[in-house]
Amino acid sequence: MEFKMTDSFIKENFLLQNKTAERLYFDHAKGMPIIDYHNHLAPDVIADNEPFSGINEIWLDGDHYKWRAMRSLRIPEKFITGNEISKKEKFDQWAYTVPFTVGNPLFHWTHLELDRYFGIKTLLQPSTSDAIFEETNMQLSQLKPKHLLNNMKVEMLCTTDDPLDDLSHHQKIASSEEKSPEVLPGFRPDNIFGIQGDRYLDYLSALGELADQEVRDFDSLLVVLKSRINYFHENGCRISDHGLEYTYASEFSNADADTVLKKRLSGSLPSDREAGLFNSCVLYELFVMYHDFGWTQQLHLGALRGNNKKLKRQLGADVGCDSIGDFSQAKNLSKLLGMLNDNNKLTNTIIYNLNPSMNEVFATMSGNFNNDKVEIQWGTAWWFLDQKDGMELQMKTLSNMGLLSKFIGMLTDSRSFLSFPRHEYFRRILCNMLGKDIENGLLPNDLNFFGSMVENICYHNLKEFIKYKK
């Protein structure tokens, strides 16, 4: 399956369907710096700043979006994640896959990335695989991670880091005299909620060693967590993140959580009810700490992870066998945010939903607790939804039920250093939406007003929302 044409379809007005959209994008959106406030880039790669080994390392290795597409074509796993196959054979299988991805955002992303990073304006398919493989590898031999980030006008990015991380790579980046974006840690304590896991006591022991405090009860656990938050804060962290199926919001008391933790410390596994109580208490106490440190907090809700147990056993987590879950969200989220609000411990919060049937739920939830000191944002279309239709639906719903003008815009949520054209993708879609409404007479034809609005959504709103400067 191949295209007869070889030239890329991505032209200067890609996704921009009228002149007003073009003016909004080229005069206002295109030149704005990027703040990528949630991603999974490896800080050690940025700190070491060595050229990549080739296109496979930066483009195919670890990209579960591509892996899912290749499996859907029944490509043998050895060509996707195997170690016995050459890099060229793996790349050829991806080139074979690309024409089949039409209609999937992978098709747009692939060709945007080839163009924006390498100047390649050729469609990737089997007949062009050899040339593109050679050209990208040749260029990457001269390109370093910081160059790629600087070329995309990345001003700041927040990585995703476990409380156990010593943040030495962030420290190395901060002390380097070489030009690079500001790279700040993001506090992601998901492992603290795995109280029923086999390695949980080992995890608590490791946390305690870092804080020079043995975890022997719930109070000492809070001391350890606060110590790690303080350490992250000293190293520039101003944002936390939680990837949960749903918000923990069981009825709890600290005394009850203490009982559950001591049961686990004694070697017994808590019941599901006890684990829910403990996790609810920990989540609430963490959110109180984030408030006290002046951080922004994020909740990524609704992923059903690790569905293919066999594949997870073979390869681990985040390998392309996660999907959208159908969990109930509104009541628990309202309960947690309401408790924090009642106790004046609610800080700036971003909530993301993975299930698009809950767009209206999250759009309306984000407006419940705003005041002159605290802002709750409904985050950008996430994961399976960060494609053209998903972004448009999210922004239209936000317009109908909130304030699009105050939106904090796009993030990559990616492990790839080649993912930053997704900001361009988002910005073109935003400008096209506004341009269509203006030309259809649904909005005033005031390009100064809407140009400023576009600049705010792309950059200024977020910079004000996340006060990340040390």
Broad structural category: alpha/beta
- What percent of residues adopt helix (DSSP H or I)? 40-55%
Shape: globular
CATH architecture of the largest domain: Alpha-Beta Barrel
Largest sheet: 4 strands, parallel
- The low-confidence runs, each spanning 5 or more residues with pLDDT under 50, are none
Report mean pLDDT, rounded to a whole number.
96
How many distinct domains? 2
Strand content: 5-15%
Q: What is the element string, with H for helices and E for strands?
A: HEHHHHHHHEHEHHEHHEEHEHEHEHHH
- How many β strands by DSSP? 9
N-C termini distance: 52 Å
CATH names the topology of the largest domain as TIM Barrel
What CATH first level of the largest domain would be assigned?
Answer: Alpha Beta
At the fourth level of CATH, the homologous superfamily of the largest domain is Metal-dependent hydrolases
Roughly how many Å is the radius of gyration?
Answer: 23 Å
Q: What order do the strands of the largest sheet run in, or round the barrel if closed?
A: 4-5-8-9
Q: Tally the helices: what do you get?
A: 19
Describe the model:
The chain starts with 18 loop residues before the first helix and ends in a 5-residue tail after the last helix. It contains 19 helices and nine strands. The protein is an alpha/beta fold and 470 residues long.
Quick take:
Helices cover about 50% and strands about 5% of the residues. With about 475 residues, the protein is α/β, with parallel strands linked by helices.
